[in-house]
Amino acid sequence: MHVFVxxxxxxxxxxxxAELLGNGHTVLALARSDASEQxxxxxxxxxxxxxxxDLDVLxxxxxxxxxxxxxxxxxxxxxxxxxxxSIAEEGAAMAALGxxxxxxxxxxxxxxxxxxxxxxxxxxxxxxxxxxxVGGRGRSVNALLSLASRGVRATxxxxxxxxxxxxxxxxxxxxxxxxxxxGIAGYPxxxxxxxxxxxxxxxxxxFRLALxxxxxxxxxxxxxxxxxxxxxxxxxxxRRLGLxxxxxxxxxxxxxxxxxxxxxxxxxxxxxxxxxxRPTHPSLLDDLENLRP
Length: 293
What we know:
Number of domains: 2
Strand content: 15-25%
InterPro entries: NAD(P)-bd_dom_sf, NAD(P)-dependent_oxidoreduct, NmrA-like
Shape: globular
Protein name: SDR family oxidoreductase
Pfam family, one: NmrA
């Protein structure tokens, strides 16, 4: 397939572009800067200049290709208003891409987050949250999946809170960056709460599989580690950075604090059974061994 990819230079997106190109597909990738354009060209992708807010550019990219993987999301997490603006921008982009593909039966794979279910690991059958600070993302994904009845092979790959590569990325990456700043490998809550995780290269394989074969209207979990205890994550970070490990207030992590304190494991059993996805890259705790002081 010739695939249109947004967000193709991020932690996940760069891995997805490489995975597609390495498996016989070609890529048209959205680039909003000269640096992104050069990185994508160096990777072997064709480039379409524009941003996630350029809806006509997004429609043009979708119309020129055999399928879409939508990964782009705003980078401003400075507060509730900035986050809400990024979610709204992402929702408008997904709607534009979906509308362009109505009646084509082409695939459109988008990204979402694994839901939180009290007392157990969430599964692919659990609904995405549609209220709260990130509820808009759930509503946008649900709207996209509903286009399955209108001739769009829309699917969603739900990502865990930590997508990592070489010890960087996700919630664990924020813990490490905060530790370098504060001089403490801190963790919120009692440390027993669990976070799911996946290596970016394993996640990229799942995006390709969903693009190639997932049925319309389906949801998949890119979860390799069902749930690593936050205290265990902090201990590895502390050891690698030579810093003390201790509990810190949720406020240390700004708007993410309450989320960081939640127990939020997730399962990918159905994804593995149906799509044959098999993570092969290092676990989060092993990958964190790449951290350097």
